[in-house]
Amino acid sequence: MKYTAKELREIWLNFYKEKGHVDIGHVSLIGDGTTGVMFNVAGMQPLMPYLLGEKHPNGTRLCNVQGCVRTVDIESVGDESHFTFFEMMGNWSLGDYFKKEKTAWTFELLTKVFGLDKDKICTTVFEGNEDAERDEETANYLLDLGIKKENIYYLSKDENWWELAGTTGTPCGPDNEWYYPLHDTPCSDSCDINCKCGRYVEIGNDVYMQYEKLENGYKPLLNKNVDTGFGFERMLMFLNGLTDGYMIDIFKPVIEYIESMTNLKYGEDTDATKSFRIIADHLRTAVMLIGDENGIVPSNVGAGYILRRIMRRAIRHARKIGLEGSCLGDVAKIYIEKIYNDAYPNLVEKEDYILNQIALEVEKFTKTIELGTKEFEKLINGINRKLEFLKVKDGGYEPTDEDRTISGKSAFRLYDTFGFPIEMTVEMASELGYKVDEDGFKKAFEEHQELARNSSSGVFKSGLAGNGEMETKYHTATHLLNAALKLVVGESSCQKGSNITAERLRFDFACDHKLSSEELAKVQDIVNNWINEKIDVTCEEMPKEKAVEVGAEHQFLDRYPDIVTVYTIGNASKEICTGPHVKNTSELGKFIIKKEEASSSGVRRIKAILE
Hints:
The structure is a single chain. With 611 residues, the chain is α+β, with helices and mostly antiparallel strands. Helix content is 40%, strand content 20%. The protein has 18 helices and 18 strands. Strands 1, 2, 3, 4, 5, 6, 7, 8 and 9 form a nine-stranded mixed sheet that branches. A hairpin with a 4-residue loop joins strand 8 and strand 9. The radius of gyration is 27 Å and the shape is globular. The chain starts with a helix and ends with a strand.
């Protein structure tokens, strides 16, 4: 049987509602700041307070289909299975039923509703380690249901344990993953779920949240919870016998539209097919983020930066296959009016706004491309003049590949000054019979990164005059001040500069009004409360894209190296920074604001001391 997205959505929700669950609907894709990530990256994430023991207003049995956004592996989008926006079909038990009921219901859904052969179903369970016991309980329930013993696999923590990376105080535990073969022909005698041949597909998993994650180890939760997650797009692909996620009915109308506008056929050319997928995926994500209840727009900071990167990647690939930029609005319309009009009615309500924001970004990036193209043409003309000179000088001269190559430094200037993607430089050069010194480009790029990495003042050192004990304390205090201002003034407040000496800190921030005495007192109290809470200051190195995704504050992201250091002060502050910092907020003493004044238009300045 073939399934549409609408049918699968209804089947999932109705099945669990019949089991006493309440459909709680989907929430905003934009993280609310409580979980430390920029976007909701898992269906359970908005439910974290309830999984930790807080009472949910809709009871202890819940279900929904929740949208998620993950951009850490954005470069993988373009193959047949990666998406930046995706949906998770979920159901939860908050201290209610546990392993016996959940294994039975998943088995029932797969065999009785979707008609899968129980003898072909394979599952994996946690093999156990020094932190948690082997999950024999789940394995025994699976055997009782009729799963073959040889189809139950015990795997390590890397495979069968779920926890939210980079967090503490969050629920976690062993999971039970469900697999099914796409066909009956093994690639070898040892072909099983661990084989890389692609025969077996993971169709979903049930997480048994028995533990709370600590900084060092785990402790049992008072209330044991169930968190089920089945990927919506993946399930649609599997149930319809497809191996390409972009062939499900969510994407098919978009693919067909792009085919009609470009006279290209999806699947015939590898590069063009990659562009089809990137456009289809990235425009869907852009529609969802702009049209979200807490919608964002493209910008150069935070979540807006991620959105801009996604949209500009789509625009570049549209140009690559000859799709006019104005057509991206039509792609967005398909998602709004035909694909998600029922499941996400907010998109229909905000349609004009969404389309306008997409059009603005297309226009802005088109100008960037146009400026870069002019500079590119100047480079080509310069090379041609050089070749003409050599021909005049030596009538029998034959240009070499090196003569017809754009230097790495020139290519990097196009990228750094004009925002011209290196891929576009290479592509355009190739069309004209020229090459690009890509190794030279990489070298210039690395030199640029090294310069940023070695910067010891200004933005990357938060204006420190030195690295002594007091400068270190004041530097940490600016992080707390920045975070407190966001709570009092609003999220629009952000650091515009700072200057730190051993005697005081000076902090400039975006704000459109003079702070009242009440606001200043509140900021001061918040900072001192954090100091009194004696919060540890921790640091972690990670790729800068991941740092953005987990919600780290930053400035001038393009100037940072690929690997950055993120300093976290409990739930108060998370920033990309090069340090130095104290180990614990208790070292700071008492924070006192001495003065608040204007710095420039739209920028205010605070001077403060520590006692």
